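Rotation project, supervised by the postdoc (A.L.). Task for the rotation student: set up a whole-complex structure prediction and record inputs and outputs verbatim in this book. Inputs entered:
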Amino acid sequence: MPLTPTQLEALRALLDRLIPNDEFPGALAAGTDKFILQLLTHACAAEAPFLAQGLTQLDTEAIARHGQTFATLPITAQDALIFALEHNRTATPWPAAFPAAAFINRLIDLAAEGFYADPANGGNRDGASWRMIGYDPLLPARPSAP
Amino acid sequence: MSAADSTYDVIIVGAGLGGGIAAGVLAESGQRVLLLERGRDLRYRDIPGDHLRHHRLSIYGDNTTHEPAGHPRVFVDPQGHSRTVYPHEADYHNNALTVGGGARIWGMQAWRFHPDDFRMASRYGTPAGSSLADWPIAYADLAPFYERAEHEVGVAGDPSATDYAPRERAFPLPPVPATPTGAWLARGAATLGWNAFTPPLAVNTKPYLGRAACVQCRQCIGFACPTDARNGSHNTLLPRALATGRCTLITRAHVARVLTDASGRAHGVEYFAPTTPDSAQTERRTAHASTIILAGGAIETARLLLLSTSPQHPRGLGNHSDHVGRHLQGHYYPIVSGLLPVGFENPNLGPGVSIATTQFNHGNPGIIGGAMLANDFVKLPIIFWRSHLPPELPRWGLANKKAMRELYLRGIDLRGPVQEIPSPDSRVTLDPHVRDHFGLPVARLSGTTHPETLRTAEFIRARAEDWLRAAGAERVWSSPMDLRLSASQHQAGTARLAADPRDGVTDPFGRVHGHDNLWITDGSLHVTNGGFNPALTIMALAFRAAAKIAATR
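Outputs recorded:
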């Protein structure tokens, strides 16, 4: 497991704001958190410690501003914090090698990659995002190519 | 002779478009051919439909590279910083590593070059600092071989179009169907008074040469074709070669050097290959032949020439005039996105490319050359999210999610391969430090295109914006381009054709100057790369060189 339970809670809360539920499933309902955990265990294992540190710093930032962790903030405060981090406006010192904007932009990319990629990648369960936007690969049921 | 040694008439290095075509022509002419391919002979099921790991978006890998770690390259950025890069990274300038090469996963645009693409220096002059030059052959020299490629590989096209390049025979296949976005663009072109027509694609729009028709899936470019309707050498000339019984294909074979004698004649190659086809163990082998053909693409062919030093050729083969590896080029691609006022009732079916203009390939005031412009393939959702949402839109949250569902079917975009003005400093050399799995120096890519390329690209970007606006797009946007090295799938130029050995690497047929039985049949030969996708020109040159070899043996 590349993340502690606290980091995982922060990740899920963050994903729920990056791609929220509305009348269509959002990131959590589509399994995008599992897609990211899978990447951090395999293809992005080298990056995992930095993202884990960023999730801890996200909570540190939330506590410094509001006295509570990111996951327990009201959604308006969560969104305001994400917006601030995107613009590197921070209340706590972030690592110079991995500033707040780089962290949040990476998570925004990861969320979209999982949510909008093919269901086999694990973050777009049942093709939820594809149905939402009107995409179907229309691959033949039985490929005839050798 | 040991078991690991063998003798053939012809050895071909690389089973992509150029190598596969040469193998077919030569095996059918009676030659015993050894075809060495660095990749594997991937089947449809071996090339995953992974939207994050394919040849248009390779964030975490790609779907044809099986041994990425052992074969890095070194990329030097315009500031002079070098770093080691791997196949899925943009700076590697990869092409698909498999039997069939890039054509296994390509977009299939099968254009003839414009007659003036062969005489760029005569038409425009040579800008200071560039190596813009004329080809030593003219369009008419290639026309019969363009025709062979169109018929023997299979190209679908509009018979009333492409009159910029005179043809004698019609396309063998009817053009790809119109798309909803194409209808908007057709109206826009009519408003502007521009030519616009269905571009030629190497796809079976009906069953052809024993294979099925395209089923218009919406995955296409970057992936393997589910019905084998995408045409290349892998399903045409290569099977013909193998059917003769005279062509031996060895996969996972890495050629280490071309062997030459004191007179400069090539007599064989040294290569590494698995001890048995599926083994992880490799062995060094030698194979001999009286003709050697290199077709590994503009980066690896240049690397192999540079690796093949001898006491007579200390700087590598064909490198007497210091042209090997230089003039590396590809295509700058201005990409312009827009939004139509309404979504399409019927989303575009694949392949998606359905309309093009050649209005701006030449004759642009104050500009050198130009580009063909066309609409693009059906967009994968993740590619649309990354690259085709309006730039002011938030990248996250409900606003972003709503925009994806409201705009996905309204998106329209154009792109075009800008004819580059080559620079001698954009080049492939051997890296002095980094070695591959076999201990050989890897390719080092450095330099940038000539600044004139940027001027042409910016001109074309503005014309693409004009077209989208005239087509009815209510929002149009794009980004300025910057000066960088360009190669990628359209890599070309590193062993340029030249009548005079002082001006290039190969003679007008593709034979390496100074080595009368060493040939090249890939994009390395291109003096300039046209304002079009280059594959059909690679194929035509391969047919022409192979016919010449067959006639002289």
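Student's summary: The mean pLDDT of chain B is 96.
Supervisor addendum: The radius of gyration of chain B is 22 Å.
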